[in-house]
Amino acid sequence: MLAGRTLASMFYISVLWIFVATAQDFTPSSSWRKPTITISPEQRENIASAALEEAIDHLNSAAQFDGESYGSAGALYSQMAEFDLLFNQTKYRDQLKSYFPLAEQARSSFLDEFVYGYAATKAYVAYKDEEFLTYAEISWNSGNEYTLSDDNVASQSMPFKNFPISSSCQGISMAGGTFHSTDPNDATLVGLGTGSFLILSAALYEATNNQTYLEAANKSLNFIHAHLYNVQNVVQDQISAMQNASCSTSNTIFSYNAGLMIEGMAILASITNDTSTQQLLESTVSAALSNDIWQGQDGVLRTGDAKLVNALMAVYNHNTISSAMQNYVKDYLGVQYNAVIEMATENNSNIYGSSWIGPPSSKFDSFNQTQALGVLIGAISLTNDTIPNSSPTSSPASPSATNIPPGPKPQSKSGIIIGSILGSLAFVVFLGCMIWFFLKRKHHNQRDVQCSPFGLDSDQDLQVQTQLPLSQAASSIPAIHSHLKTQTTAMSQSTPSQPSLSQQHARKGHQTTDSSGLLHLSGPSVLLSQPHLDTMIPLPMQVNNQETSGQLERNIQRGNPGNNMTTAELVQMLNERLQPGQWTDDEQPPEYPESSSGR
């Protein structure tokens, strides 16, 4: 029973290990376009700096882009601070100090655009200036007002919203969800709002170590995981917070929602070292980088997404992941970088289009420019020599070759993972069966030893097997045969009902020889035989007279089994073995005529 339980435990542990080991596949695809960045960090710095200056030149006097969304300028502020942080410089500090007040005047408290708070946090980390931290806190407070608290959920109401709040969905609290819209009648909790508040909270906690921000970040993360994840670990876009909306969700997915979640988790995992956060991070990265909705089989994001790129840079730089995953992320970022500089711009214009697969655009657009800047700045810190790169490098593709029909679609990673799991399970089942077989066989052999006619103690670890060198066994047999031939022949004739020695051999034992030159003697009665002998000689493993048995054993080992035993004693011993209980101590053996040899 113990062996069975041990075997079952080994089996379940092995299966669990297989599922953990094969759950994520971080092998860069061989179909990815140019995953290796070949230009130097200095060249990358120059390319990013030129694109950054191009964007700054398009800001108006209010530090905004004419005709563009309010958040576009905030994205640029963040990239200016990131660039200085990367090179430990203060090139853009004074400009940013003048930009943030103007942006806050344009929209009080940076309402519903947490990108300004995130940018201010980056600036605070880069320059250690408390003024930037103040703007970051203003932005966080405005976001917190539109985030469902435990009190809001308990009262099923919230300021600024004109509808009853659903306290839970599928039995899980709605606390932690953030409204992106300030419209009092808009009940949607979207990934963009909650994810943006997540990374702002996580970044502020990383910068200040204030526990309030950590608690807020964890609530945002738990909400997204509980209410917006689908079964493929992809973040869906929105869920209704209205009480009578039956927790309806939108199946629409965008890469930036995954990016926001990934970056928030990357920051938290590096701070807390929480295993569950780390595992969820790996699952989300794997799902995002293999999703064919926003990227082709070449791995290039069809439409630029700085949020996903920023998230992957956070994963790469926080260094809380395995080397396999880090290499995987690095190669993916290399694919995006090479696509942007080769297919999203042309003629050294420093202007980047919305499509990273081409054709490039000659018209400046603030949104397109900041999306490209995400990868241009991020790729500066990527290295190609500190982490072994095993993925193949595709041949360069020219912008004019973008209309070439794609090749056959590679095998699905899901299929590879499932196949690996099934194959591994089959191996574990086979291994388990082999272990069970050998345990069962060992148990059976032990039971045979305990029940054998040799009288072995059950606590002795003995095998009923004797090995004699073939030369020694052969030299012993003629002496035994010569001494006992007459006696055994007469015994066979006097007891016709008793089986012959050859019949006993067939029923009770056998001999084999192996390549080591050993004669294996096994079975209840160990029998010696040679092809030239006409008699099988039983060697009793146990006799009633211990002294006689000992003498016989010692004499056999010396090659002279009968020197110290009389014929009567030997015949008496043999007859007692062949006819147990029928021989008495005072009974004398019959007279035998002397053989021709004089014995």
What's the N-to-C terminus distance? 60 Å
For the record, the CATH class of the domain at 147-181 and 183-293 is Mainly Alpha
Show unreliable segments.
1-22, 386-416, 447-550, 556-563, 595-599
Find the CATH topology of the domain at 147-181 and 183-293: Glycosyltransferase
Instruction: Tell me about the largest β-sheet.
Output: 3 strands, antiparallel
Order the strands across the largest sheet as they lie in space: 5-7-6
Rounded mean pLDDT is 76
What is the β-strand count? 9
The second-level CATH architecture of the domain at 147-181 and 183-293 is Alpha/alpha barrel
Count of helical stretches: 19
**Rg from Cα:** 43 Å
**Pairing-aware structural class of the strands and helices?**
mainly alpha
Order of helices and strands: HHHHHHHEEEHHEHHHHHHEHHEEEEHH
**Portion of residues in helices?**
40-55%
Shape: globular
In percent terms, what proportion of residues is strand?
5-15%
Please give a structural write-up.
This protein is mainly α. Among the domains are: 1-30 and 412-438; 147-181 and 183-293, Alpha/alpha barrel (Glycosyltransferase), CATH 1.50.10.20; 471-578, no CATH class. Helices cover 53% and strands 5% of the residues. It is built from 19 helices and 9 strands. It has a 3-stranded antiparallel beta sheet with strand order 5-7-6. A two-stranded antiparallel sheet has the order 1-2. It has a two-stranded antiparallel ribbon with strand order 3-4. A hairpin with a 4-residue loop joins strand 6 and strand 7 (518-522). Helix 1 runs antiparallel to helix 15, helix 2 runs antiparallel to helix 14 and helix 9 packs across helix 10. The radius of gyration is 43 Å and the shape is globular. The protein starts with a helix and ends in a 21-residue tail after the last helix.
